[in-house]
């Protein structure tokens, strides 16, 4: 890191505020789908590309983020990212057609794909190792809060205003963050200039392609999807081979040679799978099993999201104090307990009971996600932090999508085989309880202290 004097709290506040606003834009949009459908006279399938396309572009930019951090001064990079997000948001506000709205969303996704791994790398780079748990816990609080309040903010705005009000809010925040960045964001990352590897970027498109295949599998396997999957797998293998045989790869995959990092990546992935499954399966459970309205179903997950956010700083402090094993074992135990109780009690649960068990599983995530990310980062030398964060984020996306496919397949097939919706939920909860057990066993191999060795 360059020896640059800067206001540490102001730097972190601006960085997290910018990332927070971008995260809200990611989680808040689905609430506005009916309004988009009415405005542009399009079906839900087409409108859903506002999220699907966003996710694909975001996942393409994640492997590029380490190169950007090493070749562009961070203050200039951050300002360019915020400006790109702001331009995309401005297009969404104007949007005379769906095509313009889609272009705006893709520009937003480009910015988010860069900032999500980068902000974690920067936070860990400017923070002493023994304090990383606490600072990443605060980051987890901010990001968790964004996911929790995103649908709430969009719901409130859409009650009284047109859907453009959502993007106006994001635009205002972006402008404020951009102005503040000239005072608070400094070039804190050391630069190591290297040529840009365009072929690797093209091959890296295999990851969003695989992500698309995984998310589309919930609708069944088609010939077109199979062709995309084969091409994506070939490109992914080529990408890995190229990175391992270049002196300066776009993304340093040799981070997997560090055992502790690899363990942390899979722990993060397993906890993310648990989180995604909870946020997808529980609303279905609320609506089809408990027969509540979609509004009540959505609000019923808010307590779990709030609990997850509030526990993140606490788990970070525990990580710094007690080391990773104790913290991760607490989290995985909560995840396993939550899914086990859901499996056993499904026939007897009321709404309050289901909300409480959703809170248990998401609380477990607070003790695994960020602590595992921090543990993996601490196992790497500082010059590989950016690569490690990008690898972790990419793997988390892929494993999360695989979890969604598995949950959807389990619910559909068990329903077809048994004709019993209650039993299909029990089978699905049991499957992810077993996955949680794998995470629990993996957590037992972590060190008692946070440092590698």
Automatic annotation (TrEMBL):
Domain Major facilitator superfamily (MFS) profile, chain residue ranges per copy: 11-451
Transmembrane segments: 46-69, 81-103, 109-126, 138-160, 166-184, 196-215, 221-241, 261-286, 292-315, 327-345, 423-444
Entry-linked InterPro entries: MFS, MFS_dom, MFS_trans_sf
Keywords on record: Membrane, Transmembrane, Transmembrane helix, Transport
GO cellular component labels: plasma membrane
Membrane protein topology class: Multi-pass membrane protein
Subcellular location: Cell membrane
One GO molecular-function entry: transmembrane transporter activity
Name of the protein described by the UniProt record: MFS family major facilitator transporter, multidrug cation symporter
Organism lineage string: Bacteria, Bacillati, Bacillota, Bacilli, Lactobacillales
């Amino acid at each position: 890191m360059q020896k640059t004097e800067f206001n540490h709290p102001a730097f972190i506040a601006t960085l997290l505020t910018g990332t927070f606003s971008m995260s809200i834009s990611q989680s808040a949009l689905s609430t506005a789908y009916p309004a988009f459908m009415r405005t542009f006279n399009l079906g839900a399938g087409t409108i859903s590309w506002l999220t699907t396309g966003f996710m694909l572009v975001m996942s393409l930019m994640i492997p590029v983020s380490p190169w950007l951090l090493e070749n562009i001064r961070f203050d200039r990079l951050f300002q360019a990212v915020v400006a790109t997000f702001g331009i995309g948001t401005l297009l969404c506000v104007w949007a005379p057609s769906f095509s313009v709205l889609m272009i705006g969303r893709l520009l937003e996704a480009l910015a988010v794909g860069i900032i999500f791994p980068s902000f974690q790398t920067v936070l860990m780079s400017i923070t002493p190792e023994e304090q990383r748990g606490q600072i990443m816990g605060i980051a987890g609080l901010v990001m968790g809060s964004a996911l929790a309040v995103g649908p709430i903010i969009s719901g409130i705005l859409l009650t009284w205003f047109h859907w453009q009000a959502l993007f106006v809010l994001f635009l205002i925040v972006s402008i404020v963050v951009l102005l503040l960045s000239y005072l608070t964001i400094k070039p804190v990352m050391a630069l190591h200039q290297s040529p840009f590897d365009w072929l690797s970027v093209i091959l890296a498109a295999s990851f969003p392609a695989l992500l698309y295949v995984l998310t589309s599998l919930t609708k069944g396997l088609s010939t077109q999807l199979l062709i995309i999957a084969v091409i994506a797998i070939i490109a992914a293998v080529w990408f890995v081979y190229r990175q391992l045989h270049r002196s300066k790869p776009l993304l340093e995959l040799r981070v997997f040679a560090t055992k502790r990092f690899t363990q942390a990546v899979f722990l993060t992935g397993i906890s993310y799978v648990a989180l995604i499954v909870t946020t997808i399966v529980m609303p279905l459970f609320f609506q089809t099993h408990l027969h509540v309205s979609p509004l009540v179903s959505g609000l019923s997950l808010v307590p779990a999201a709030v609990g997850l956010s509030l526990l993140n700083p606490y788990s970070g402090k525990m990580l710094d104090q007690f080391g990773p094993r104790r913290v991760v074992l607490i989290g995985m135990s909560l995840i396993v307990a939550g899914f086990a109780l859901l499996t056993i009690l499904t026939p007897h649960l009321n709404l309050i009971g289901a909300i409480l068990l959703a809170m248990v599983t998401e609380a477990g995530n607070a003790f695994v996600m960020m602590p595992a990310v921090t543990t993996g980062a601490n196992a790497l030398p500082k010059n590989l932090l950016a690569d490690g964060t990008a690898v972790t984020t990419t793997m988390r996306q892929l494993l999360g999508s695989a979890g969604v496919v598995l949950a959807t397949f389990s619910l559909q097939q068990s329903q077809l085989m048994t004709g019993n919706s209650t039993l299909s939920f029990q089978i699905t909860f049991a499957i992810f309880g077993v996955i949680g057990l794998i995470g629990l066993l993996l957590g037992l191999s972590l060190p008692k202290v946070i440092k590698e060795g």
